[in-house]
Amino acid sequence: MNSEYSSIGVTDMSLTYLFNKNPDLVKANLVHYSYLLKKVGIDFAEISINLAEYILLKSIEDNNMFPQFILRIDSLKELDVFMNSDKNTLAHYEYITMPLKVYMSYINKYLNETVERINNMSIVTQKYNITIEINLEELFTGKCNNNSKEALLQALMGLFETLQINIIPNSTVFAIKVTGDFDCYNTKFRLIKSFFSKHYINTIICPDNNCHTATAVAVNAITSGVTDICGTLTGLHQHSIKLPVEEILMAATVLLGYKSKGRYEFFQELKKLFEKISGIALPYNKPILGSNIFDCESGIHVDGIIKATETYEPYPPERVGLKRKIVLGKHSGKKALIYVLNKNKAGDEKQHIVAK
Amino acid sequence: MDYRIVDTTLRDGEQTPGIALSRDKKCYLARQIDELGVYQIEAGIPAMGGDEKEAVNEIANMRLNAKISAWNRMCIRDITHSVDCNPDIIHISVPISEIQIKHKLKRDIKWVYRNMLECVNYSLSMGFETTVGFEDASRADIHNIISFTKAVMALGVKRIRYADTVGILTPQKAIHAIRRIKERTLADIEIHAHNDFGMAVANSRAAFFGGAQYVNTTLDGIGERSGNCDYSGFNNLMNKFSYCASNKLITSSF
Q1: Distances from the Cα of B170 to the Cα of A185, A265, B166, angstroms
Q2: Which comes out higher in pLDDT, residue A58 or A170?
Q3: How many CB atoms within 10 Å of residue A303?
């Protein structure tokens, strides 16, 4: 799933979350939201079936302006909708993703259908690239110790055997998406990737953020050779807290030296739209997106920033669509006060008083 | 190896723009933080004078279980304010990256070295346990960190702080850097992580694996920019992966 112009492919799941929260507002802002996702460097965006049908109605023609949409089939009920849909309805979608449990039902349902019915289904006429989502706990089924390389390999082989890869004509199991609370120091990303690569299957890492480690897990995965990462803008998701994609996009660029994937100054506009649709105000200090992350009050920091901004900033605020702000308060020093007076064009007399 | 929490809610946490704690609130919070079972509370910056100095003085005299430390710039005049408060520990912050030395201090590494030794000597001569914090260590030459650590250890300092001042560490870098300093100096090491890329908790845990026994946290992860290592997040992570300390778990209000 790696995009051709960058070495990391990033999938976002925020549209499925937002659609659950407020379907009408998602529909009303879909074009703009999708456009902004693409702008900030998102390659793939997962959407639920209900929204997929709506996107077809909107006839989004210019694919270069939007991420590649991936149809998400999350439950057995949605699987029925998908399998019984008119074969042309979902024909625009090359990519579908589903949890392991749904995939297994998909295979069983397919094998039990009559030839006549199958011929009328979209699944045999449309070529689909399927991504199967597995949770770490499903992979190990509670029996193995994931610190052991042998146990991991055994679990992967067991999983592979149950998948009945490529049994449906025209459809390819394209990627395995591994989700869950990884221990970022012990999980063997290189081994997982190399196992599936041998079977021409991509590995997508989609870490949960319940332990505040998702970005670190993703950074570790990337440095171990994984090229496809999945998360969701802000990290909020209906099932659990996920990797905030804005963090891994910035970390890959600023910390790992990857080429910038998008125009990150659009993060603020995207964040505001997210807040409007979800009705959730994000914390003022949220990494990358928080509105106050470049506010500065303490005397030592203000002094440093006035002399050279990089002393106390990991990257320039403009890069993520923000502005630096010197705030006066309990921790302000004389230099901060003079700076603010200067900025507000206070007279020499006032500045002299402060300086004294 | 157990880890020890050095809570800096009342110093770095309070430096969050817009947060200003009165003396009473600082004392109240110090008592609450102490009840969590932390090893040390960084109570504030006495050199700020006024309410802040009085608060640190009062907290130092509250007879809490946690050790109380006072934060200082590398400046004898600042340290004398801390001496007045009689804390358990005097912490001296030493800018060590080229960016900090060249652009903020407008000095050179030799000046920093001399000044650091002078300040540490003074603090130790006044009879205080002294710790040294290397500001912006994650962007500094590790050889300087190692040689500075050896120099202050020779004077009697036991613990140094590795500060990821602008939050640019990754777990791999954290574990590597801390391990290297530990192997070369045998110093006790404290990790001070910032959350600019959402990795403060993971980096702190990595530093612990590398040999940093002391971990800086703040309540709710408050602090400059995107904050510091969150107290509850860090303890939850350590408990999930079977590392226990005496600290109590609390639920984050976020």
Answers
A1: 12, 23, 12
A2: A170
A3: 17
> Please, which pLDDT band fits residue B245 given cuts at 50, 70 and 90?
very low
d(CA B218, CA B250): 12
Using CB atoms, pick whichever of A211, A314, A329 lies closest to residue B196: A314
Question: Rounded to whole angstroms, how far apart are CA atoms B65 and B31?
Answer: 9
Contact residues for A60 (Cβ-Cβ < 8 A; gap 6+) = A31, A34, A66
Catalogue all structural domains in chain B, each as residue range(s) with its CATH number: 4-240 (3.20.20.70)
Tell me which chain B residues have a C-beta less than 8 angstroms from the C-beta of A293: 196, 225-226
Per-residue DSSP letter, A258: P
One-letter identity of residue B9: T
**Interval B93-106: pLDDT, tens:** 999 999 999 999 99
Please tell me which of the candidates A184, A285, A301 has its beta carbon nearest to residue B202: A184
- The minimal CB distance from B225 to the residues A223, A244, A293 is found for A293
CA distance B68 to B31: 11
Cβ partners under 8 Å of residue B8, min gap 6: B42, B192, B216, B217, B218, B223, B228
**Length of chain B in residues, anyone?**
254
Share of chain A above pLDDT 70, in %: 83
The two structure tokens encoding residue A208: 């949960």
Which structural domains are found in chain A, ordered by start? 9-278 (3.20.20.70), 295-355 (4.10.430)
- DSSP-assigned states of every residue in A99-143: EHHHHHHHHHHHHHS-HHHHHTSHHHHS--EEEEEEEHHHHHTTT
What is the C-alpha separation between A339 and A343, in angstroms, rounded? 6
Record the tokens describing residue B245, joined without a space: 């300390």
pTM of the shown model:
0.92
Torsion on CA atoms B32, B243, B198, A246, rounded to nearest 10: -130
Q: What is the dihedral of CA A222, A226, A232, A234, to 10 degrees?
A: -10
Nearest Cα residue in chain A from B138: A314
Q: Which letter does DSSP use for residue A243 in this model?
A: -
Q: Taking CB atoms and an 8 Å limit, are A312 and B166 in contact across chains?
A: yes
Which residues share a beta bridge with A205? A178, A229
Q: Which two tokens stand for residue B212?
A: 């940093």
Amino acid symbol at B225: R
B-chain residues near A285 (CB < 8 A): 16, 221-222, 225-227
Helix axes A49-58, A14-21, angle to 10 degrees: 100
Digit-coded pLDDT (tens) for B151-172 = 999 999 999 999 999 999 999 9
Chain B: closest CA distance from residue A184 (Å): 8
Contact flag B198-A327 (C-beta cutoff 8 Å): no
Amino acid symbol at B233: G
Query: In whole angstroms, how large is the CA radius of gyration of chain B?
Result: 17
Task: Collect all residues of chain A within an 8 Å Cβ-Cβ radius of residue B48.
Answer: 331
**A94: which 2 tokens?**
């090359």
Contact yes or no for A136/A179 (Cβ under 8 A): yes
List chain B residues with CB under 8 Å of A256: 170
Cβ-nearest to B199 among A181, A215, A286: A215
Side-chain-facing half-sphere of B224: CA atoms under 13 Å: 26
Pairing of strands B4-7, A325-326: unpaired
ipTM computed for the complex: 0.93
Which residues of chain B lie closer than 8 angstroms to A303, CB-CB? 104
Q: How many CA atoms lie within 13 A of A299 on its CB side?
A: 14
